[in-house]
Amino acid sequence: MDISIIVVEPKYAGNLGAIARIMKNFGFNKLYVVSPSFDINNDDCRKYAMHAQEIIDKAEIFENFEDAIKDIDYVVGTTSKDSKNEKHHLRKATDVRKFAREIYKIEGNIGIVFGREDYGLLNEELKKCDLIVKIPASEEYPSLNLSHAVNIFLYELFMNKYKERKRVLADGKEKEKLYEFFRILMEEVDYPEHKRENTEIMFRRIIGRAMLSKWEYHTLMGVFKKAINAVKKK
Predict the structure, then answer these.
(1) Is the pLDDT of residue 107 over 80?
(2) Domain 2-159 fold
């Protein structure tokens, strides 16, 4: 398993430096930064990183979110806005503690994505995530400081690191193929067009929560292929 911490469009160098320090505290070293508003090698960033400056030195910079997740097999988005409506799948979130108990069962490249300090991740970015995770907090003010959120998140992962046996996860390309077949099946059965996008997001979240193994992926693909062929023959 390889876990990357992905920070999207950070505004404050101090926050990114603090994130690097937190990563080293809990044994993580791969940092991806999407379109930062500052030079990540500036004095503030290095000052807050303290003895974790090598994480800043090795950080990879990306121009956009899509490039940052291109080689990620399992994309985990974070949000402070959890939808309580079962039909609103975009922000239907899993508790961070539950996620931390499950994540080490799997293999693959995992990216944990943290959004902007002021408004988090965009809906278009959340749509590309396999799973959405939240940190429970007061409903009066659930939005945490960016580096504080990373701290809690990585602490939970650290505490569960060696508890679970790993399994081989379906990779990103395999899951995208599965989603493609799901879209084709919806078209073939004439599923209402205005419902397709939300239903696909729901399916993506279901697969994300399941942490699909390669064996499960191949089984589902076999079912989808037979279903599509059966519908086409009618």
Answers:
(1) no
(2) Alpha/beta knot (3.40.1280)
